[in-house]
Amino acid sequence: MKPIIGFYGFWVYLTYMSLISAIVGIFFAIQGHITYALICLLISGLCDTLDGRVASLKPRTEREEGYGIQLDALADIVAFGTLPAVIGFMIGQREEAVGVASIIIFSTYVLAALIRLAYFTVIEVEFQGKKEKRTYYEGLPVTIVALIIPIVYAICTIFDLPLFLIYNVLLAILALAFVIRVKIYKPKGWMKVVLCLIGVPILIYIIVNGVM
After folding, report:
1. Which residues of 78-105 are buried (b: 16+ CB within 10 A; e: fewer)?
2. Phi-psi bin for 32: left (phi > 0), alpha (psi -120 to 50), beta?
3. So where are the chain's domains?
4. Dihedrals φ, ψ of 208, to 5°?
């Protein structure tokens, strides 16, 4: 019998790293270091993009596959649900603009992310049981916020736009997109590379020109 519970191996390390990066990002956001928090969000997104590919390199038992599905969803709610909400709240705190409407939007965003991830987990388990692969998503994947939010942040700082207001609107739209029943093409290998490359200049901009 193993001394500790869980499954350990290179195929889950990226998911663990995604979670740790998100937690560090939350700490940075609470301290007012929004730039560092966004960098952590990007790192979590990169880890999540690559973890499926890495996991496919190892033959896994049914339990290990199930563990990976559950682990991924639990890490994602922290990285792409909680962290963006905390970033938004702290931006509002700095601008002294947080109100009831903002709190409702942030709470709804996290709830929508949770609902989507729980639904996705159920569907993914069904596909695994049938040994099938999904070719599309239902609704917007929560992980894409790791790219969308830093891009919007960069645009707001470049053009001196009202960041907190736009951030509230963005999270409201994302919350709806998470749960709306629409088919979205699932990106494959080369498309994932493109998405990662898009994040590189955004990351450089945030590091070099971070203002918060």
Report:
1. bbbbbbbbbbbbbbbeeeeebeeebeeb
2. left
3. 10-209
4. -75, -40
Q: Quick check: helix, strand or coil at residue 53?
A: helix
Q: Which residues of 133-156 are buried (b: 16+ CB within 10 A; e: fewer)?
A: eeeebbbbbbbbbbbbbbebbbeb
Helix (H, G, I), strand (E, B) or coil at 96: coil
Residue range 164-172: average pLDDT? 97
Retrieve residue 119's tokens.
């639904």
By C-alpha distance, which of 89, 97, 87 is closest to 145? 87
State pLDDT tens for residues 83-103: 999 999 999 998 888 899 999
Say if CB 55 and CB 68 are below 8 A apart: yes
Residue 13 in tokens: 């390390």
| pTM: predicted TM-score of the whole model, two decimal places | 0.89
* Domain 10-209 class, CATH top level: mainly alpha
